[in-house]
Write a structure and sequence with these properties.
The protein is an alpha+beta fold and 412 residues long. It is built from 14 helices and 20 strands. The structure holds flavin-adenine dinucleotide. Flavin-adenine dinucleotide binds next to helix 1, helix 11, strand 18 and helix 14.
């Protein structure tokens, strides 16, 4: 491993997407910067484990291609994205109903109209909501009076059936919040991105995103297995080094920020995730599969190999079950019990590959929620991460870039 420098313009603590984005911005303007990362790899919450030829993202995640930061920060063609179908497969009473965006999948519009997820008025309201968010700038969506997602959906006139059978499994899954308590601003911005783009997986797993960013930064500037134990203006300490610097960027997850900067901790959302291998896929659809009861514990699932065959060795299929809000108990049995009600006894023949219990999957973003929080703390100290913007890949990338700009202004 490279020797840590004793002096550098900027030290970034944390090699998640936010830290990598900040470091790249600083480096691209000719400043010296290093990233120190406590774990044995880059990516933070966006990492992929390779297990017996399967690619297991650490928690079911997707990349929304409409995220604005991707245009400038990521070489999208190098990710070789594999696309989910637009819409969802809703499972209820052992039956599957296809719900698609009729503007993008007119072929399946009739199926959507008759899907038992809500009334025709509910479906027309979805079309109206889609039109509204697509014609609204992000800044306007992230402004104005804020309420929880569930209250917002009720005030828009959606029925309880529609909320429980569609919005709860879809957005409860995306926002890791089965109760839909998250800010309406977050809900609408995600709904906008879903309407404008597609959900995708990189061929080599979600970790291809941070790995690409790390490559641009240069391995010589990234120090893995190196935890920051103390920070003070002008100095970052690790177990066996003290680095002098003009700027410190704390780009850790929110609980670690509270520890390092001794600030108040925001509550975390937790998430469970179980991976199974099957010889035969339970469906050939490329949709995210939703729990149409809205009760969980598995709120959504997917046959990932239908979307990205590279996620499994030849002849095998990879199924993911996502349990937002649940990390205790026998997640494998809970998942099998529920998926059996969808797909029958074939579920018992599946092999369990791995279970993830993620204690900090994201920060709570309850109303009133204010994205774009300050990144400059004074005295050459900066902070970035998804907790400073929206709890998403977009939020982490954006937060890191604007924090990098703040560091550059401080250094100039
Ligand atoms: C299960 C799950 C599903 C998700 N699904 C989606 C999705 O579908 N779409 C989407 O857009 N987003 C999703 N997200 C959210 C997204 O992954 C995060 O918002 C984003 O990755 C956060 O990046 P970050 O850089 O802010 O933080 P992190 O990725 O947490 O990076 C922080 C880094 O700091 C390091 N660190 C901490 N303390 C120290 C220390 N003392 N010294 C050195 N290093 C330290 C950590 O090891 C970590 O690598 C999901 C997250 C999870 C967990």
């Amino acid at each position: 491993m490279n020797q840590l420098p004793t002096r550098v313009d900027a030290v970034v603590v944390g090699a998640g997407l936010a830290g990598l984005a900040a470091a790249r911005q600083i480096k691209s303007h000719g400043r010296s910067v290093i990233v120190i990362e406590a774990q044995d790899g880059v990516g933070g919450r966006v990492r992929t484990d390779k297990v017996d030829g399967f690619l297991l993202d650490r928690g079911f995640q997707v990349l929304l291609t409409a995220y604005p930061e991707l245009k400038t920060q990521i070489d999208m063609s190098a990710l070789d994205l594999q696309m989910f179908s637009s819409g969802a497969l809703v499972m209820r009473d052992g039956k599957a109903s296809v719900v698609t965006d009729p503007f993008r999948e007119p072929r399946r519009a009739a199926a959507t109209i008759f899907a038992p997820i809500g009334s025709l008025s509910d479906k027309l309201r979805i079309a109206a909501l889609r039109w509204r968010v697509m014609h609204r700038e992000e800044g306007k969506i992230l402004d104005g009076i804020d309420i929880s997602t569930v209250v917002a959906l009720r005030s828009m006139g959606f029925s309880t059936t529609m909320i429980d059978r569609f919005f709860r499994p879809l957005f409860g899954g995306i926002q890791l919040d089965p109760e839909l308590r998250t800010s309406r601003r977050m809900f609408e911005i995600i709904f906008k991105y879903l309407s404008e783009g597609q959900s995708a997986l990189p061929t080599n797993g979600m970790s291809a995103i941070p790995e690409q960013m790390a490559k641009h930064l240069g391995a010589e500037n990234i120090f893995l297995d190196t935890r920051a134990t103390n920070i003070e203006p002008g100095f970052v300490s690790t177990v066996n080094a003290r680095i002098e610097t003009k700027a410190i960027v704390v780009a850790t997850d929110q609980p670690s920020v509270s520890e390092l900067l001794r600030t108040t901790e925001i509550a975390s959302r937790v998430a469970g995730c179980v991976y199974f291998s099957a010889d035969t896929p339970p469906t050939h659809e490329k949709f995210v599969v939703l729990d149409g009861t809205g009760q969980g514990p598995v709120l959504n699932a997917a046959v990932l190999t239908n979307v990205a065959p590279s996620y499994a060795p030849p002849g095998k299929h990879l199924i993911v079950a996502a349990l937002p809000g649940i990390i205790t108990g026998d997640l494998e049995t809970m998942s099998r019990d529920q998926l059996r009600t969808w797909w029958g006894p074939q579920v018992d023949a599946w092999s369990h590959i791995k279970t993830y219990r993620i204690t900090h999957a994201g920060p709570e973003q309850l109303p009133p929620f204010n994205p774009k929080q300050i990144v400059s703390l004074g005295n050459g100290m900066f902070v970035c991460g998804d907790h400073r913007d929206t709890g998403s890949i977009q939020g982490a990338l954006y937060s890191g870039r604007r924090c990098g700009d703040a560091v550059l202004a401080h250094l100039s």
